[in-house]
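Support request, please re-run this one:
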Amino acid sequence: MQRKLRRMQCTAENKTGKSRTVGTMPACFVMEKYQMRIMGLDFGSKTTGVAVSDPLGLTAQGLETIVRKDENKLRQTCARIEELIEEYQIEAIVLGYPKNMNNTAGERAEKTESFKEMLERRTGKPVILWDERLTTIAAERMLMESGVRRENRKAVIDKVAAALILQGYLDSQRQ
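Re-run finished. Output below.
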């Protein structure tokens, strides 16, 4: 089965400054000004997993897990996220939204909404809430199948979950 690539029009200016269409090209070859990196976050009570997309927005890679001692002490977490936004030139943030299985928002979801507002205020970047149900379980299963020992899984599970959240968002944008 052949997959059809989405195509974009290419324009060029002539000597008088008028634009005209000169052809089309696959969207994956669009010039750098159309590229942007997106950050994915798995926000938890003591840790926040961080992932980033490639510049074309095709794949997500787990980056790190930010650990904090107290659930309510978010200053250092936000400061580290701001550093990563600067370092990776992030344009938008996808934040995992922990809905209950019956599609209701619980206490964790309310804390996530507050964190979303704080991130938008501090970074000036748009923050998109994305359903994260079962991502930690999927991350745990992936790590087990990859042969990662139980004691080592805890250190990476949040960044793997963040990558799964971000990849789900990226995949939805290509459809």
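Residues 34-174 form a domain with the Nucleotidyltransferase; domain 5 fold (CATH 3.30.420.140). Helices lie at 75-88, 107-123, 135-145, 150-174.
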